[in-house]
Amino acid sequence: MAATEHGFVVIGAQSVGFSITNLRTLKELERGKYPVAIGEDIFAAHQILPETVDAIVAAFTAIQQLFADYGVKAITVSGSHSFFEAQNAQFVWDQLLSRTGWAVQPQTLAQESFYRTQAVFARFPHFSEITKTGTVLIDISSGSVELTAFTDGEFGFSRNLSLGPLRVYEVMSDLQRTVNNYVEVMQDYIDSRLLDFMRLLPHAEQYPNMILMGSALSLFETLIPTGERMVETDRDGFDLIYREVTHSSDQYLSEEYDLPINQVEQVLPTVLLLYRLVKTLNSQRIFISNLKLLDGLEADAAWGAGFRPVTLDPTKEIIQSAQNLADRYQVDVAHRDATVTFVLQLFDRLKKLHGLGKRERLLLQIAATINDIGSYVDTHKHYEHSDYIIRASELMGLTRTEQEMVATIARYHSSDLPQLNLGDLPEMGAARRLIIAKLSALLRVADSLDASRQQKITALRVSLRPDAVVLTATASDDIALERWTLQQKGKFFTAVFGLPIELKGRTSR
């Protein structure tokens, strides 16, 4: 088996899916799933039951045999965000590791959104053409809804809401036997949860196109022709589906749409949720896709392996997500952009000194973009507010650990300092603590270079000498404040890298 073949496994709310994929071509040699009712455990009992763990182990064992038959060595095993919502998720993770040898990688909601976006970039027909006008991607899993918007062909923003159809059904199942107007009550419940969510969305943009995808769309996937990725309908066609579902029995839906009877219970909340989103966003063209999280993992792995099945660099989405967060908290754009420019120049010119790579550069860029968001709460100790806001936010494409690293770097960009032995970062391993220290030191220097918030420095030369790092600035005005600030904040740089750093400059007028 060629080294380009990669095995993927995803634990979702309703099944364990898998594929064997050629990363060079994104062609799948095998793909399938094992039905496992994990979500029913999580949303009803808030934990994964022993018999469900047994079912996951059985699925893993069968998939392992298939991978072995194909000779697949490179394997990625992921668990959806809903899987890790279970109260006993860590215990189950350890049981799966001990019984199968597979360590399940957790996915945050922001990561899942990132991978699904990669899926549509890589596999959705005519995606670049469709997104020339406002397009919203709605991904519905059993436990949540992810809304990702595109304008003029570019990623705009992403929001998540914990309102998946299985979650709605489990919350409201008792009502079905006690009220006559169950559909109306469920609609009211969905509307109440959507109200604040929709209020936070940008209102200036129009989204005439809607792409629907996700593990909860079993009903709609029966409409997609075999071998195709999607089917298109319009508002009238979607209204017909809505009226049929809200006036039909479970038995009829099961037979008409070829659904297992245990999935029919999710059809009503799925359709009610989508109907409200279509109405609110006033979308006219509706594309129903069978793309899954699995497709996004394949595309991202191909990009990471050096292949280019996706034309858009995925880091653009991550950076845009950070800029959206900065805009939401009204960060000073001019200072933000100046800081980002300086810090990336420092990183690139001092590679021999810090020895870090592309991923660390991206984390530094994100930290420089959002380090001041805490000022929205209070300028006093704003770095502390930045820390907890970043930890509580959704940053597309970052792992939970990476997001915590960014939050910590942002905390130490200002007057606060980590202990020199980094003992106040016990939650991070030694290697990550050192990365945080290096990136924080670089960010402190970059922030100093615009201490006046007037963008006086118009050009910067970075020189790494045996005995010092010298910054030579061309400025539009006196930079005495920047020089004094660097003397104070640059002490941590010297402690981390063992070299003093100084700022020289001249005015350009």
Automatic annotation (TrEMBL):
- What InterPro entries has UniProt attached to this entry? ATPase_NBD, GppA/Ppx_hydrolase, HD/PDEase_dom, Ppx_GppA_C, Ppx_GppA_N
Give the highest taxon in the source lineage: Bacteria
| Gene Ontology molecular functions | pyrophosphatase activity
Domain Ppx/GppA phosphatase N-terminal, first and last residues per copy? 28-296
- Chain ranges of the Ppx/GppA phosphatase C-terminal domain: 320-468
Q: Report the transmembrane regions from the record.
A: none
Similarity field: Belongs to the GppA/Ppx family.
Report what the protein is called.
Answer: Exopolyphosphatase
Q: Which organism is it from?
A: Lacticaseibacillus nasuensis JCM 17158
